């Protein structure tokens, strides 16, 4: 009997942005340093998942409009949203939550939300109160994994735990998996040539150990376990959050009917996925592959037929010129 | 807490999941704020006003836990007639000696009695307590002697109705009456509405059924009134009945693996192990006189002589005899303060020639880093023991003064030894964590190359010095040659056995067997103990600090994991978790209780096990016997939690809001601007800014980030941490950016009277302007992890800080400073000096600036 | 020949159930033999994180007398096996390239580091302590006996073990030094 | 922005949000009341791309596409030429196909991060991987094209030569077309979303290239089919590209703007000019034929590089990932 499918449930509502996951991952997998660059993207200086960053903590400074301005404090200058590259921004870009409704323009709520997720801050301004979202991103270990599907060498394979792993002794660096990933996870290590990504600690889980990131996570924002259990837990959590009024909370990647057949690593987010740099509706590219082949076949036949027609029309040499 | 103690924060999250409300009070919006229910930004350096406002709220709205207050605090105690409060003297207390910048604390005492403090400054009433006539002029402020001749003890007077005008409760009420929500708003920049919300949250969550905890870190201690910050919280928590109870307390979140241990077994000038004071120089002082002066009549400090004699036996063994006062005379004597900052002055003056730095990086980690480096440049020799070539090891080659031309490598005579240190995996030993838990770490591998533990270094250095001086008849060498200095060693490198050292710390009885509790210590020389509060850590010859029973196999108190001092108690003063009759205040909050025969409960009771709640001491009883069955605060001379501190602090019995030494505001509460007895140091490299200077209109505060550790010695060199925060930056609000033309990711120069540093700019709404004193105040956030060496680099924030100290703790004020900030990089080379001189000129700074009381 | 063939995933693809070549047929021998280094370690040594004062438990994994991994100790009631980014970087802290293993010496007025044996350095330091101690010795100050030296000082970090602090305080006090300080003050 | 504005209906920051072509307001409002106009606003994580752009070198991979097309269509053309008695054209195109396919192989290997591990391409046969199938296809096609050329030039084993020629011609269209699937089977919006037309663009481009090669290499008396093919190929390429651009909607702008836009416009112009020149003048003037052929070859290359550049552009800007997905979600919800 094959073991249960294992995965991650990353509950960003309790993430404290400590980056222990990033470091624990690097220590375990001996991943090279990813560059020393101050990005100005809040406290995120690793920018995103890459060949050398398999766990990445996003930081989003955000205004939650609640419709009350701080008297006497003017916000000078334009304040762009978090989609603005830091170099073009006059400050760490903040953005109103994308789903905030005008109906929430209620007087500033100082009553703490009962064991809710992160609070919005006391500081209010024209955009509302400030909140600071943090989220640890990772390879999604998709049910239908584009990277795995397109890999021509079998370097990528699906393990007995349902995870997707690159075999470093096989990968020849063709690079096909890289644009195939709808999440922009897998990437090529420049001086190495091969593609790298999270293995969900394939070596560790094989011995019943917890992946390095989940083990280190101080607040259990990253939870590891059988996917079925995680999904049940997540459903419970989201209900509880909704019950206490955290209406922003939503699950991402939990649905087996989504474009990638559900993620092995899914998330609880407090805003739209794209705010965190995640695609809102990812689809495995190979879903359309049969149709692609059909179109390609038609095109090939068009080529064959077209040329046959040309030659048929022109006939043998000496014929019509 | 999420920012600096992420793993500890998991328990806050647990509490949150169980319905706790988390309030975060901090000038900046941190990772803790992000998870808190309420973030309250306030002006750095205004916490006493904030906490004082809470005290006032509790008193005016009668939200105190009256039964607790009456039973366990000194609320009812009558204070002497001579005492004058800040209310009477406009911001100062009685006994202020303006000439010597110090207080005579005698007028602060209770009526009819003189009590000693359980900690803090205990030598200040030496003469009153020893009734000795003396002509010594103490060099240090804070140890000045009063002229009074009050008795060393006496009967404490109380008024259980709390109505006597001189009872502590009434004094407290009067003292804090001016700390109104309006005042809090004006001083702290916290809107009244928000402040009231905090008041409600704290008081609604305190009492019989509920407890509130306060957690703090150096944001409270690194001020010229740091000790008084903690005192204010103590008053509040005692009034609310939140001490000695589960879920309560004032929790110091300490920043280093064994910083608690470093004060328990202190490498601090003013302490001997177990908080026994280092003796000050007094004429022909005997052991008995010392004990009389420093000990207490009542409570466990009444046994000071046993603790000290046992320490002397541990150090000098057979050479410590009754005849020589147990070698008490071997101890060197203090004359005032000899803290690390005075040491730097001594280096600059040329009286201190050699310096050991063991895992410490003052060249970037101490206030006024330049003075630290100049001090080192004046040394004959310097020994640096660390993992990497930290700034304190390389300043002679590439320090900032080389760049400015103030120093030339070829002219620096300091001989420098760099000795590589062993890591925690390469040696055995114990760390004492922030909750007083001694945890043993076992050696995993041998250190490579020349790397050695500090245990090895100290032991072998001592061995060599003793060998070189062996046979010397010189009296000065007696303490060294008589020292017990023979530890078993093992392995190829002859590493001393750390467990043998732990056994010595634990102590042994007349039969040589390990002691199991400090109550077994005697003052007749038959027991030895290197640190009385650690007695029991090696009980039964077992390393109790190495106990590792998995948490899943024991209850939530986890008493069988490692060992907490004292006596493996996890919550101090836990007698207070039960009511005066010994019953838990509530079932929810049951912790220890009297079962009719003895004290019992989840924890080790912090009380004599067989002392019934109704026990009343006999007339003339001493030490622990003098404590009644309801005196829960057993280390205190009167068994009570001190709302009012009649002794122990050199800057007043009650906390009062004083402005930071360098503040852009004048004190709205009193005409006394700053702590009158704050410790100032006059030096050309330590110029101070005038209060309220328009040249330095902003407030800056230093802090840590999750990704780095302290001054960076253990993080800036690690690629995995360096890449997470790759360079020094400052954090400012968009409003300040607009005001000063600072650009996101551009450069800023931050200036104080000492120097200017540069930092990349993060403009963020997490920093917020406040309305303080009727104007908008901008604050500049400076993480202080950086220096020029390592992978992640930048200027050190500590370059900016003045050396100005809390007079109790001698800790520097780096959490609230005034500064200027401007766009662009700082000048290089000698131009930097001229740049700062110009600032000083504009602000009218002289060597007298800031020296006023 | 057969062995070679069986190691060819295409062959396995057609023999086994993994027709699409996305599962076990694509597995390499190295992958099949992969084991975590915590599983192959010779021993696990119980330790405590050296960074902040929370005191998280650590498991130190040793293989061939080298530390190969450090992670949280799940038994600890303090930390429950978790570590922050610094604690998680303990392996790099203790075994990384930043560690130095040689004694270095800068002579007075020197412009560069020089090498020195540990033994020689210890001997030189002992001599210097004796000399500075004598130079700064005081029997009395303002008529009161002080029996001390102001000639040398010490400043320790707060990552020192209790036992280390104990020996430092004991030795330096016996030498008469009083300027013994620690990060705890700072 | 001022405090007074902040008290209004919507948070004042609203107007500044969104770097996309439209305004966020539509979508926001759309929550409660379905927006009439498709909304193209989006947010992102500091403007960072969502997907990773290919790490392929344009010269390697666009070159590979071009050469593969030239080879594949060339083999078909060669067979046609051979069957219709145009042996010089047939030989020339067999040679060009061999050279092209060899070149494409070199480009492919060159682009690998670990070229020494090229053989790992033959570890598995993966129906889900166009690159895997493509490699096996090339494994069959390459020798066939090689044999066809070598046997033609040497004159050895003519029967075998005919079989090889027929084989290469059979596989040729697949070689020309599969690279479109290779590109489309990624998350790159400009490629994936164009998967219906992209094969036609590619085979059109391939036919145009082959015709261009024939125009250059073949004698004028044999080039009538080449001229017709030029028209056929160019028309197919340009029409398919236009259709694709249209279907892509906002993503289509990646084909119109920037580097890709310049390349695609050049391709269209050169195709039109080449085909027209060849068709009208190529039969009479050798120079016109060569010029027309060169224009067609260049046009084909431009198309490949243009497609490549559009793909890169669409991958690097998160808007091309987010906005279409958002619309899809909202359409589903609606």
UniProtKB/TrEMBL annotation, chain A:
GO biological process: one example: formate oxidation
Primary location recorded for the protein, binned into one broad class: other
Domain 4Fe-4S ferredoxin-type span(s) in chain numbering: 6-36, 130-161, 162-191
Cofactor entry: [4Fe-4S] cluster
Cross-referenced InterPro entries: 4Fe4S_Fe-S-bd (IPR017896), 4Fe4S_Fe_S_CS (IPR017900), FDH_Electron_Transfer_Unit (IPR051555), Formate_DH_Fe-S_su (IPR014603)
Organism: Actinoallomurus iriomotensis
Record: residues binding [4Fe-4S] cluster 4: 151, 171, 174, 177
Note describing how the cofactor binds: Binds 4 [4Fe-4S] clusters per subunit.
Residues annotated to bind [4Fe-4S] cluster 3: 139, 142, 147, 181
Residues involved in [4Fe-4S] cluster 1 binding: 15, 18, 21, 217
This protein's name: Ferredoxin
Record-level GO cellular component terms: cell envelope
MF term (GO), any: 4 iron, 4 sulfur cluster binding
Subcellular location: Cell envelope
Keywords, ordered alphabetically: 4Fe-4S, Iron, Iron-sulfur, Membrane, Metal-binding, Repeat, Transmembrane, Transmembrane helix
Composition skew (Low complexity), residue ranges: 84-102, 113-124
Domain of life: Bacteria
TM ranges: 292-313
Binding locations of [4Fe-4S] cluster 2: 25, 198, 201, 213
Annotated spans, Disordered: 68-127
From TrEMBL, chain D:
InterPro entries on file: Electron_transfer_protein (IPR052049), NrfD-like (IPR005614)
Keyword vocabulary terms for this entry: Cell membrane, Membrane, Transmembrane, Transmembrane helix
Major location category of this protein: membrane
Biased composition (Gly residues): 1-10
Membrane topology: Multi-pass membrane protein
Name this protein carries in UniProt: Polysulfide reductase
Assigned protein family: Belongs to the NrfD family.
Record region (Disordered): 1-34
Keyword Calcium: no
Annotated Gene Ontology cellular component terms: plasma membrane
Subcellular compartments: Cell membrane
Protein origin, superkingdom: Bacteria
């Amino acid at each position: 009997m094959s073991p249960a499918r294992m995965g991650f449930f990353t509950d960003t509502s309790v993430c404290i942005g400590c980056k222990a996951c990033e470091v624990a991952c690097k220590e375990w997998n001996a991943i090279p340093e990813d560059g020393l660059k101050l990005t100005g993207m809040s406290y995120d200086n690793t920018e995103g998942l890459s060949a050398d960053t398999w766990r990445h903590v996003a930081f989003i400074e955000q205004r939650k409009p609640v419709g009350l301005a701080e008297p006497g404090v003017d916000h000078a200058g334009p304040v762009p949203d978090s989609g603005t590259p830091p170099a073009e921004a006059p400050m760490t870009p903040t953005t109103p939550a994308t789903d905030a409704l005008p109906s929430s323009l209620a007087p500033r709520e100082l009553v703490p939300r009962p064991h809710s997720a992160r609070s919005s801050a006391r500081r209010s301004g024209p955009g509302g109160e400030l909140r600071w979202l943090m989220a640890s991103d990772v390879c999604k270990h998709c049910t239908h994994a584009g990277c795995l599907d397109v890999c021509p060498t079998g370097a990528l394979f699906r393990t007995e735990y349902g995870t997707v792993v690159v075999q470093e002794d096989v990968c020849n660096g063709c690079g096909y998996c890289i644009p195939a990933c709808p999440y922009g996870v897998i990437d090529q290590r420049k001086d190495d040539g091969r593609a790298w990504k999270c293995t969900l600690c394939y070596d560790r889980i094989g011995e019943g150990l917890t992946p390095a990131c989940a083990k280190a996570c101080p607040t259990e924002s990253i939870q590891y376990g059988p996917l079925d259990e995680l999904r049940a837990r997540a459903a419970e959590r989201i209900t509880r959050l909704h019950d206490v009024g955290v209406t922003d909370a939503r699950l991402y990647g939990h649905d087996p009917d989504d474009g990638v057949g559900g993620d092995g690593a899914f998330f609880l987010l407090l805003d739209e996925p794209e705010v965190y740099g995640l695609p809102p509706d990812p689809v495995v590219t190979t879903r359309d592959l049969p149709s692609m082949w059909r179109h390609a076949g038609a095109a090939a036949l068009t080529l064959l037929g077209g040329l046959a027609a040309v030659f048929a029309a022109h006939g043998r040499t000496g014929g019509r010129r | 807490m999420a920012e600096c103690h992420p793993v500890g924060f998991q328990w806050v999250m647990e509490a949150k999941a169980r319905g706790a409300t988390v309030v975060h009070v901090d000038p900046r919006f941190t990772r803790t704020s992000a998870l808190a229910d309420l973030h309250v930004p306030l002006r750095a350096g205004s916490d006493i006003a904030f906490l004082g406002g809470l005290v006032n709220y509790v008193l005016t709205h009668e939200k105190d836990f009256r039964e607790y207050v009456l039973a366990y605090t000194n609320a009812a105690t009558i204070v002497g007639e001579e005492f004058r409060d800040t209310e009477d003297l406009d911001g100062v207390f009685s006994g202020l000696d303006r000439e010597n910048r110090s207080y005579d604390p005698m007028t602060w005492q209770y009526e009819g009695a003189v009590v000693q403090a359980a900690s803090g400054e205990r030598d200040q009433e030496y003469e009153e307590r020893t009734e000795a006539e003396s002509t010594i002029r103490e060099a240090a402020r804070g140890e000045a002697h009063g002229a009074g001749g009050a008795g060393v003890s006496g009967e404490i007077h109380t008024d259980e109705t709390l109505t006597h005008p001189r009872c502590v409760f009434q004094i407290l009420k009067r003292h804090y009456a001016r700390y109104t929500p309006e005042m809090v708003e004006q001083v702290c920049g916290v809107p009244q509405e928000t402040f009231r919300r905090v008041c409600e949250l704290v008081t609604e969550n305190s009492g019989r059924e509920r407890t509130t905890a306060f957690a703090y870190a150096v944001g409270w201690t690194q001020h010229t009134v740091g000790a008084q910050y903690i005192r204010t919280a103590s008053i509040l928590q005692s009034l609310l009945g939140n001490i000695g109870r589960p879920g309560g307390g004032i929790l110091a979140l300490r920043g280093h693996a064994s910083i608690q241990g470093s004060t328990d077994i202190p490498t601090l000038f003013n302490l001997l192990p177990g908080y026994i004071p280092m003796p000050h120089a007094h004429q022909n002082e005997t052991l008995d006189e010392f004990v009389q002066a420093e000990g207490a009549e009542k409570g466990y400090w009444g046994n000071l002589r046993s603790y000290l004699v046992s320490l002397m036996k541990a150090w000098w063994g057979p050479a410590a005899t009754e005849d020589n006062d147990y070698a008490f005379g071997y101890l060197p004597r203090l004359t005032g303060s000899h803290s690390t900052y005075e040491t730097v002055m001594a280096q600059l003056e040329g009286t201190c020639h050699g310096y050991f730095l063991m895992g410490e990086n003052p060249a970037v980690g101490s206030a006024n880093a330049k003075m630290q480096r100049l001090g080192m440049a004046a040394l004959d020799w310097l020994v640096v023991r660390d993992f990497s070539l930290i700034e304190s090891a390389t300043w002679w080659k590439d320090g900032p003064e080389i760049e400015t031309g103030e120093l030339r490598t070829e002219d620096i005579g300091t001989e420098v030894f760099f000795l590589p240190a062993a890591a925690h995996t390469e040696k055995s030993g114990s760390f004492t964590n922030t909750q007083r838990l001694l945890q043993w770490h076992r050696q995993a591998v041998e250190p490579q190359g020349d790397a050695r533990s500090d245990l090895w270094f100290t032991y072998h250095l001592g061995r060599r010095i003793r060998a070189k001086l062996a046979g010397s008849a010189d009296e000065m060498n007696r303490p060294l040659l008589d020292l017990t200095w023979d530890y078993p060693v093992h392995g190829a490198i002859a590493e001393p056995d750390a467990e043998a050292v732990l056994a010595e710390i634990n102590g042994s009885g007349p039969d040589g067997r390990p002691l199991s509790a400090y109550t077994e210590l005697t003052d007749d020389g038959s027991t030895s103990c290197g640190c009385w509060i650690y007695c029991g850590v090696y009980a039964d010859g077992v390393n109790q600090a190495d106990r590792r029973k998995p948490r899943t196999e024991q209850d939530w108190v986890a008493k069988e994991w490692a060992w907490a001092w004292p006596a493996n108690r996890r919550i101090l003063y836990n007698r207070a978790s039960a009511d005066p009759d010994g019953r838990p205040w509530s079932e929810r909050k049951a912790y220890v209780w009297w079962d009719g025969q003895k004290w019992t409960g989840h924890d080790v009771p912090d009380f004599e096990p067989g002392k019934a709640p109704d026990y009343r001491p006999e007339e003339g009883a001493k030490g622990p016997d003098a404590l009644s069955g309801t005196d829960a605060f057993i280390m205190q001379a009167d068994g009570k939690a001190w709302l009012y501190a009649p002794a122990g602090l050199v800057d007043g019995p009650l906390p009062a809001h004083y402005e930071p030494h360098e503040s852009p505001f004048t004190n709205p509460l009193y005409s006394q601007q700053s702590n009158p007895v704050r410790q100032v140091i006059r030096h050309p490299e330590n110029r101070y800014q005038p209060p309220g200077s328009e040249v330095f209109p902003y407030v800056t505060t230093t802090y840590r980030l999750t990704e780095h550790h302290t001054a960076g010695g253990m993080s800036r060199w690690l690629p995995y941490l360096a890449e997470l925060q790759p360079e020094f930056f400052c954090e400012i609000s968009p409003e300040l950016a607009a005001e000063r033309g600072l650009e996101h990711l551009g450069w800023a120069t931050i200036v104080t009277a000492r120097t200017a540093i540069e930092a990349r700019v993060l403009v963020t709404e997490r920093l917020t302007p406040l309305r303080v004193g009727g104007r908008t105040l901008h604050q500049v956030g400076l993480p202080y992890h950086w220096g020029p060496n390592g992978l992640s680099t930048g200027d050190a924030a500590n370059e900016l800080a003045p050396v100005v100290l809390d007079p109790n703790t001698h800790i520097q004020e780096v959490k609230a400073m005034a500064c200027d900030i401007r766009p662009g990089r700082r000048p290089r080379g000698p131009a930097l000096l001229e740049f700062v001189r110009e600032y000083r000129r504009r602000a009218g700074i002289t060597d007298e600036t800031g020296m006023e009381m | 020949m057969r062995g070679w063939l069986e190691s060819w995933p295409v062959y396995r693809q057609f023999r086994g159930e993994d027709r699409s070549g996305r599962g076990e047929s694509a597995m390499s021998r190295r992958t099949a033999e992969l084991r975590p280094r915590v599983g192959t370690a010779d021993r696990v040594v119980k330790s405590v994180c050296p960074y902040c004062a929370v005191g998280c438990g650590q498991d130190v994994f040793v293989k061939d007398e080298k530390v190969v991994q450090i992670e949280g100790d799940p038994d600890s009631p303090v930390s429950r096996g978790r570590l922050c980014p610094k604690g998680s970087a303990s392996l790099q802290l203790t075994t990384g390239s930043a560690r130095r293993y040689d004694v270095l010496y800068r002579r007075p007025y020197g412009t560069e580091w020089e090498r020195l044996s540990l033994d020689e350095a210890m001997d030189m330091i002992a001599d210097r302590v004796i000399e500075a101690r004598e130079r700064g010795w005081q029997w009395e100050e303002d008529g009161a006996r002080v029996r001390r030296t102001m000639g040398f000082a010490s400043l320790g970090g707060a990552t020192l073990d209790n036992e280390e602090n104990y020996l430092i305080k004991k030795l330096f006090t016996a030498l008469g030094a009083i300027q013994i300080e620690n990060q705890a003050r700072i | 922005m001022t405090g007074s504005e902040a008290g209004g209906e919507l948070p004042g920051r609203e107007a500044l949000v969104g770097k996309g072509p439209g305004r966020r307001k539509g979508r926001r409002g759309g929550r409660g009341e379905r927006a009439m106009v498709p909304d193209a606003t989006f947010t992102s994580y500091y403007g960072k791309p969502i997907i990773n752009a290919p790490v392929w070198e344009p010269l390697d991979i666009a070159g590979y596409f071009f050469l593969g097309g030239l080879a594949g269509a060339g083999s078909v053309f060669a067979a046609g030429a051979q069957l219709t008695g145009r042996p010089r054209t047939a030989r020339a195109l067999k040679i060009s196909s061999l050279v092209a396919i060899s070149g494409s192989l070199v480009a492919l290997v060159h682009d690998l991060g670990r070229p020494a591990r090229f053989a790992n391409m033959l570890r598995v046969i993966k129906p889900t991987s166009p690159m895997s199938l493509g490699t096996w296809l090339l494994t069959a096609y390459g020798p066939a094209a090689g044999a066809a050329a070598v046997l033609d030039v040497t004159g050895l084993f003519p029967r075998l030569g005919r079989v090889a020629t027929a084989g290469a011609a059979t596989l040729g269209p697949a070689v020309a077309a599969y690279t479109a699937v290779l590109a489309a089977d990624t998350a790159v919006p400009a490629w994936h979303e164009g998967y219906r037309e992209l094969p036609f663009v590619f085979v059109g481009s391939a036919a145009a290239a082959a015709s261009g090669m024939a125009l250059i290499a073949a004698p004028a008396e044999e080039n009538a089919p080449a001229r017709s093919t030029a028209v056929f190929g160019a028309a197919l390429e340009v029409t398919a590209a236009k259709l694709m651009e249209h279907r892509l909607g906002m993503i289509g702008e990646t084909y119109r703007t920037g580097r890709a836009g310049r390349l695609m416009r050049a391709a269209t112009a050169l195709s039109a000019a080449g085909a027209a020149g060849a068709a009208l003048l190529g039969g009479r003037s050798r120079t016109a034929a060569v010029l027309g052929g060169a224009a067609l070859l260049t046009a084909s290359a431009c198309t490949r590089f243009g497609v490549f550049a559009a793909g890169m552009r669409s991958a690097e800007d998160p808007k091309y990932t987010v906005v279409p997905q958002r619309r899809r979600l909202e359409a589903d919800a609606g």
